[in-house]
Design a protein that fits this description.
heterodimer, A: alpha/beta, four-stranded parallel sheet, 9 strands, 42% helix, B: alpha/beta, Alpha-Beta Plaits, six-stranded mixed sheet, 18% strand, 2 iron, 2 sulfur cluster binding (chain B), ubiquinone (chain B), oxidoreductase (chain B), NADH dehydrogenase (ubiquinone) activity (chain B), Mopterin_OxRdtase_4Fe-4S_dom (chain B)
Chain lengths: 436, 846
């Protein structure tokens, strides 16, 4: 059964002191760098285009095409910025990756920067994960010491400096233009587009912003070739990726598999839903992606498959909730997160999340009428696609999808004038026999 | 052979005409229209008569797209030409913010008027904006003129569905002494913060916190210090920003609004005066793209309470011969006493001051010549020189509009000489800053890089006061500046105090072909100059020395124009002091504004007969024999002439006022003298003055004064430099000018306005600071042989032997208290502690 797994990024995670350069190089690390430095930068871009690698941060934009947008005739310096501000509820792939094998990312950063002809790259990492920040800093230090970074890398004539920047803990700074503002020392709020970052990004210069996993995938593509990479996955969603299973599952964790695997297969690998319980709902890619239910167990987990099921692949953060979970309560928690993290720039997100939380809170406590559900959906309709960036859109996903699949449960709250669930039952420390 | 030449009158004058623009054709609500490329959809819609609701959008600020109120449905042609709606999340049409989207060919825009999707999106945003809004319109200053209120009515839902708890904040909080913030009302459109950053260059307010708790904030205890802060109140689309002066004073629907012109600087900005029952309640910037766009300085906005002070003169007064005190008199009596006194006084000098309207100034000019038979008239109640009079006659008086606000934006370079625009002419500063954000480079001959200069990214030729002449001369060969016909030289009135500097400025203009403009501080200076309120000049730049000009003027006046060149202001005062002049007619003049206030006071005291035309009691009215009350600007009609030469007429705002303009008073005296002016109203004065326009006769030659070496080691007016004193004192040259928010009778009556101004400081170089052994903020004693004042220290990139202090701020008047002008020698000495009020022994302002 485990032959469904394709450990590439996670291949060395079980090695002794996997986060060190010595360990990484023992498993073949930094060999792709030498290969890449012997190529023309444009050929590296073409290689990544040919591989079919798509952005692993959620939107799935073809990575090579993004690199191709960088105007090479622009006199300003070019920058690579790695978005390591992983903050989405449920999403937990980049931080384990950087924790276990920061050199995979660093090598990817060097090759990618070389490809787009950037001489400075930034890794914007979420500030709360101090241990990861230290491992990254240590990895960068080691890479400098080994001549992988700095001036004239391995005699290629190519120079690169990498800056590890710790963010101050705002979800909005995962939005790429807000990230740029934050990196420049401003308040993290999304920028107006156009101009797009490829033309005027960091310090108004051409900038590529990629997710950690996307960049970390590049060394393997250089090492093994585009054909190898595109042999995995589905027609339009190529390659392997990290699926992060969490919640009511026996063996939560990272499962690296080709795109297109199903949740049923992944649950099999993870030992299934916790014993004695059954799957109720799940998120395919973090809390911003509309929830799915047991009827979607066989949806191929690639960009197209999940899209057709009415959700988004997102960050492949598969949060598994069993039947002990109150969907209204879960949605309220998520919505509280969005309210707390709304940057405040635009009206729909700022005011809308403020309002949604209060209505959901009322419903969770059984106060209100069925008309409130319609009002809630209408509020979501006034936020989705009306806000400045996707944060507002994401805030509506759990609400609209949960009402779609679990309207009766909302109504049950109203009929019983309170939540019909025992919140303790859904916890991992729940005693056997706690009422569902 | 016929040759068609496109001869332009200005030679190298750059064209202000917009370049031929590419037009883009699009459809808005079914109406096809063509607009210039780059136009935003929201503006294109305005042009077809569709008003899309908006909050954050402002035509003079960069788009931000924050409020989302202006969402419209947009469809675009694809490559095959099929028009397809712009989509968002899967399967949904995504309405676009029309304030950030530029038009493109073939675009089809459907606003709330034709698209149910756009209409619902707008209603949704409006509902969201109102959930946390206090809806306290009945007690809000903005109620009745509020874009949120209005657009909630036109584009919102009738009733809110919000049943939950609103976000609340303590209210209001001061973000400066003048500007108050009510965070509950704020819709976070960021207009105020964007104005402060983009237009004024004072980014001292910013959005802080996040989500619904986002708010406009200041840094810790640092208030919003800006000379233009009031504009944020005006462009606030809700009642979140209010002024301490106006808050809770009136309702918009009780106010009468009258367009007018600001009287505080020579930009003559367009304003709107809102008044109620004969009293001005507030002033707002009017929209005048040629002059002030939509902005005014805080001085133009807030400094109007001076007209309502308790010392306002309400009736004529004459000095009782038996008691020696002023007593109330009837108008006929006062006219008669004044005429009799002036007749008996013999030679009379006229000091009209620089705050007059063009019409009043003309009345003074004609009154001096026709009624008094003298050319002894000078509007310059400030440090001045004969070189300046020559310069003004040659280069400025009676000239048509040359350099304009708009032409500054197309100038290749602007050179500032003796001019600190941010403090001395706020509206000009804003336009220069706008120009500097474009392609115009700013250069300044100045003692240090002031905040105003740095905000214009000016290249500063650091020059000690007195050393300006070589600095100006060197500009002609400055490779970086490369001044040519595309450049502009702006000359401030302060240059008059440096011998040879105006000569050098004129030479520079001639050498390089750069256009030159004179920028006085006061609103009335240019009008007075054009009207002939100068000893050597008759109306519209006609020279007294020119017999043809005298005949020309005499023909209109039906009187003989005296041929003796008149005295300057300082000479008039000197002649009054020693008895050569027996009488003085004084308009709105503060004696402290002269180079030597003490001598001015002595002169007015010495004059046998003094007639004062004043708004409020002053040092002059105290000494006068006859006092006539005259109208403030709001209570008379007239016009100012901007530094550009643009005539800026305004109507009488307070129509019920019985106060009379200076012209009526002078008419009354002249009639009593038997030599009538021939007009009694501003309108009639203007009509007669207009007969003088377009003088094509001989003009005065440029001045030809050469500086006697650089630097000045002695005070003007013959006073000796202070001795170096004991111990730690050291001598420095003084640089000084008036800050915008400063002392002056026309800024009286609004404590919040003064509190929002800069703290008066003595600025020194880093080296001087070290030499003094003091830190920034510590008190220092600034002194001359004539007196001393104590002010806190500040630091600037001044030359080491130069210090800077404000001319008249915080109760300190350098000329009055120290006898010190720009270029004077002053001493600095450490001072143990800061006194309670920063003032000199005799300088405390009540």
């Amino acid at each position: 059964m485990t032959d469904m797994l394709t450990p590439v990024l996670s291949d060395n995670w079980d090695a002794d002191r996997s986060w060190t350069r010595a360990s990484y190089e023992r498993s073949g690390g930094y060999s792709a760098l030498r290969t890449a430095l012997g190529m023309e930068p444009g050929d590296v871009v073409q290689l990544v285009k040919d591989s079919g690698l798509r952005g692993r941060g959620g939107a799935g934009f073809p990575t090579g095409m993004k690199w191709g947008f960088i105007p090479q005739d622009n006199p300003n310096p070019k920058y690579l910025v790695v978005n390591a501000d992983e903050s989405e509820p449920g999403t937990c792939k980049d931080i384990p990756l950087m924790m276990a094998s920061p050199h995979t990312l660093v090598e990817g950063v060097i090759i990618s920067s070389f490809a787009i002809r950037a001489n400075v790259a930034f890794i914007y990492v979420r500030g709360e994960v101090l241990h990861v920040v230290r491992r990254l800093q240590s990895a960068v230090r080691e890479a400098y010491a080994a001549g992988h970074l700095g001036k004239n890398i391995h005699g290629s004539g190519y120079d690169l400096d990498v800056v590890v920047h710790a963010g101050a803990g705002a979800y909005i700074c995962g939005e790429e233009t807000a990230l740029l503002d934050s990196l420049e020392g401003r308040r993290g709020q999304p920028r107006l587009r156009p101009p797009f970052p490829a033309v005027a990004g960091l310090y108004a210069s051409p900038t590529v912003i990629n997710n950690v996993e996307s960049i970390a995938s590049v060394p393997a593509i250089v090492k093994n070739g585009a054909t190898w990479f595109s042999s995995m996955g589905t027609e339009k969603s190529k390659g392997m990726t990290l699926y992060s299973l969490s919640g009511h599952v026996v063996r939560p964790g990272q499962y690296e598999a080709p795109l297109g695997i199903t949740l049923r297969q992944l649950l099999d690998l993870a030992g299934g839903v916790r014993p004695g319980h059954e799957l109720k709902f799940w998120t395919p890619g973090g809390s911003s992606t509309p929830i799915l239910t047991a009827e979607h167990l066989d949806v191929p987990l690639d960009y197209e498959g999940v899209g057709e099921a009415g959700s988004m692949l997102g960050t492949k953060a598969l949060q598994i909730f069993d039947e002990t979970t109150c969907v209204v309560r879960s949605v309220l928690r998520w919505t509280e997160f969005y309210k707390h993290e709304s940057c405040g720039k635009c009206t729909p997100c700022r005011e809308g999340t403020w309002w949604l939380v209060q209505v959901l809170n009322r419903l969770e406590h059984g106060e209100g009428t069925e008309a409130d559900l319609e009002s809630l959906l209408d509020q979501c309709d006034n936020i989705l696609g009306r806000s400045f960036c996707a944060l507002g859109d994401g805030a509506t996903s759990p609400i609209t999808s949960s009402i779609e699949y679990f309207r009766d449960e909302y109504l049950a709250h109203l009929e019983q004038q309170g939540c019909p669930f025992d919140p303790v039952a859904s916890t991992l420390f729940a005693t056997a026999g706690a009422s569902a | 052979m016929t040759v068609s030449t496109s001869s332009t009158t200005g030679g190298s004058k750059p064209s202000n005409a917009p370049a031929a623009q590419d037009l883009v054709t699009l459809t808005i609500d079914g109406i096809e229209t063509s607009v210039p490329k780059g136009t935003l959809v929201i503006r294109a819609a305005e042009q077809v008569g569709v008003q899309i609701p908006r909050f954050c959008d402002h035509p003079l600020l960069a788009p931000v797209g924050a409020c989302r109120q202006c969402l419209v449905e947009v469809a675009m042609p694809d490559r095959e030409g099929n028009v397809k709606p712009m989509m968002g999340p899967p399967g949904r049409v995504k309405p676009q913010a029309s304030c950030t989207l530029a038009v493109s060919d073939g675009m089809v825009v459907s606003t709330h008027l034709s698209s149910p999707i756009a209409d619902k999106a707008q209603q949704g945003v409006m509902e969201q904006l109102l959930i946390n809004h206090p809806l306290d319109c009945p007690v809000c200053d903005k109620g009745g003129e509020c874009p949120l209120q209005n657009q909630a009515m036109t584009n919102g839902r009738g009733e809110s569905r919000f049943l939950e708890i609103k976000r609340t904040f303590p209210k209001p909080i001061n973000i400066s002494a003048q500007v108050l913030l009510d965070r509950e009302r704020c819709v976070l459109c960021a207009r105020c913060t964007r104005f402060s950053e983009q237009i004024a260059g004072d980014p001292f307010i910013a959005l802080i916190e996040r989500g619904a708790l986002q708010q406009v904030g200041i840094y810790e205890q640092e208030p919003f210090r800006s000379n233009f802060s009031g504009n944020t109140i005006q462009i606030c689309p809700v009642g979140a920003l209010t002024s301490a002066a106006y808050r809770f004073r009136a309702r918009p629907f009780d106010l009468v609004s009258t367009p007018s012109v600001a009287e505080h600087d020579s930009s003559a900005s367009a304003i709107r005066v809102d008044h109620r029952r004969g009293k001005v309640m507030r002033r707002l910037a009017a929209n005048d793209p040629q002059v002030n766009e939509e902005w005014i300085s805080d001085k133009d906005r807030f400094a109007f309470h001076y007209a309502h002070q308790s010392d306002r003169l309400t009736h004529p007064m004459v000095r009782d011969e038996s008691t020696g005190e002023l007593r109330a008199a009837s108008w006929p009596e006062a006219f008669a006493v004044a005429a009799r006194g002036l007749q008996a006084a013999g030679h009379v000098g006229v000091l009209p001051g620089g705050r007059l309207t063009r019409e009043d100034a003309y009345a003074y000019a004609k009154f001096a010549r026709v009624a008094l038979g003298t050319n002894d008239i000078d509007f310059r109640s400030r440090p001045h020189s004969d070189e300046e009079a020559q310069f003004l006659g040659a280069r400025v008086a009676g000239r048509d509009i040359g350099v304009t606000f708009e032409s500054l934006e197309t100038a290749s370079a602007v050179v500032l000489l003796g001019l600190e625009p941010e403090e001395e002419n706020g509206t000009l500063f804003l336009r220069l800053r706008k120009a500097s954000r474009g392609k115009t480079r700013i250069f300044a001959v100045a003692p240090y890089t002031s905040r105003g200069l740095s905000k214009m990214k000016a290249t500063v030729v650091r020059t000690a006061p007195g050393d300006e002449v070589p600095a100006i001369e060197a500009l002609a060969h400055d490779g970086q500046l490369a001044l040519d016909g595309g450049g502009v030289i702006l000359v401030g009135e302060r240059l008059a105090t440096v011998p040879g500097a105006l000569t050098a400025a004129a030479v520079l203009a001639t050498q390089t072909g750069a256009r030159l403009a004179w920028v006085p501080r006061r609103a009335g200076d240019r009008g007075a100059l054009d009207a002939g309120c100068l000893g050597g000049l008759l109306p519209s730049g006609r020279a007294v020395a020119d017999p043809d000009a005298r005949v020309d003027v005499g023909a209109v006046w039906r009187a003989e124009v005296p041929s003796t060149i008149g005295r300057s202001g300082d000479a008039i005062l000197a002649a009054a002091a020693d008895g050569r002049l027996g009488g003085l007619v004084i308009g709105g003049v503060e004696l402290d504004d002269y180079a030597n206030p003490a001598a001015a006071r002595v002169a007015v005291q010495a004059a046998r007969f003094v007639v004062s035309l004043e708004l409020r009691a002053s040092t002059v009215t105290e000494l006068a024999d006859v006092v006539f009350p005259v109208a403030p600007v709001a209570e008379k009609s007239g016009s100012f002439v901007s530094w550009e030469g643009r005539v800026r007429p305004f109507p009488k705002v307070i129509t019920g006022s019985n106060a009379v303009a200076d012209v009526r008073v002078l008419a009354g005296i002249s009639e009593e003298l038997g030599r009538p002016l021939g007009f009694r109203t501003p309108e009639a004065a203007a009509a007669e003055l207009d007969e003088f326009r377009g003088w094509d006769g001989v003009r005065a030659a440029d001045p030809d004064v050469h500086a006697q070496g650089s630097g000045q080691s002695t005070l003007r007016d013959g006073r000796s430099a202070p001795s170096s004193g004991t111990g730690a004192t050291t001598e420095y040259r003084l640089a000084t000018w008036k800050t915008m928010i400063s002392d002056g009778p026309m800024q009286d009556g609004d404590p919040a306005y003064h509190a929002s101004g800069p703290t008066p400081v003595v600025l020194v170089s880093e080296a001087t600071l070290t030499a003094l052994g003091l830190a920034v903020g510590e008190p220092v004693q600034l002194s001359t042989g004539a007196g001393s004042v104590i002010l806190p220290l500040g630091v600037a990139d001044l030359p080491d032997d130069v210090v800077w202090a404000p001319t008249a701020s915080g109760g300190v008047n350098l000329a009055r208290d120290l006898g010190a002008l720009a270029g004077s020698t002053v001493s600095l000495a450490p001072q143990q502690s800061v006194p309670e009020t920063v003032s000199s022994a005799n300088g405390a302002r009540s």
